[in-house]
Amino acid sequence: TPRRQSDTRTAVGHRAERRRYGRPVGGDDWPTTRPLDGRALVAAVNAAGGLGLAYAGRLPGGNAGAVAATRPDGRAVVLTHWHPDTLARAAVISDLVGRLVAVGYPAPAFEVVPVPSGAATVQERVDGVPRGRPPSPRLVRRVLELTDLQAGRADGPAGDRTELHLTADGVGYCLHEPLRRHSAATRDLVGWVEEVGRAAPADAFRGADVVHHDLHLENVLVRRDDPDAIAGVVDWAGVRVGDRALDLVTFGFDVSRRGGDPGPVRDRLAAVPADRRRAYVAHLALRYVDWMIRHGGEADVAGWLAVATDWRGWTD
């Protein structure tokens, strides 16, 4: 749930999210993500970049959605829509992903194109699929091995780092008030998040690693003939400089939610200082539970709240 554009509520947006998650439980008070108009995005990218793309349909997964298209030579690409600040970061994104590709990380080529409503990423389509069931120990191990390649690969500017939003709202995600108003359990959770934020070290998330920032199993595509072999890792527009342990926590939350064993992920995180570990868990707890209050049904909120509570208990 990184900063995909937009934060505007629309009736169409609510209908689209209900189809994926069920009726949102947050009511009409909270902003929700507008569903992606695929044909309009392809047209805007063609007008801005002269790419000559042909619309090929919507793709499943993601929060705002993604669009399939083809280049004039027949190559398949995937388009997503992002916050305008992605434009300013285009060179940094390209540099960071390029550093990983240079050491064998399976990240696809992509470019950032300005469009009137923000930025679009045009990514070469990976011949793979998301794993549709709990990840095997073998796949978990392979993802952990990939995160090792992220270590020490970045020396980007401090301004390209991310915020954890533990004491104040993010832009369109990591909102605190939905948790305060939803239930006693979520009020308790956001109180803990803010307590962790007040005690977090000033250098929380500082580091020289390349951080994907949304490393879950919908973004880790596996080969069609081997669900334990990674075909590619996608959705890099949120990549940042920082501590790759945040990616480990993101991945661990997703493994837990899918019914897998987060033990190997937690074993890796044992080497991370406890105050940092707690800050990363608090960030993901806020991020997922807030998102589901505003976009999901009660079962979605309950599921992610259970994951957040379990990980919170692990840090205490």
From TrEMBL:
It comes from the Bacteria. Coiled coil: none annotated. SUPFAM superfamilies: Protein kinase-like (PK-like). Residues 75-276 form the Aminoglycoside phosphotransferase domain. It holds the Pfam family APH. InterPro entries: Aminoglycoside_PTrfase, Kinase-like_dom_sf. Residues 1-32 are annotated as: Disordered. This is Aminoglycoside phosphotransferase domain-containing protein. It comes from uncultured Mycobacteriales bacterium.
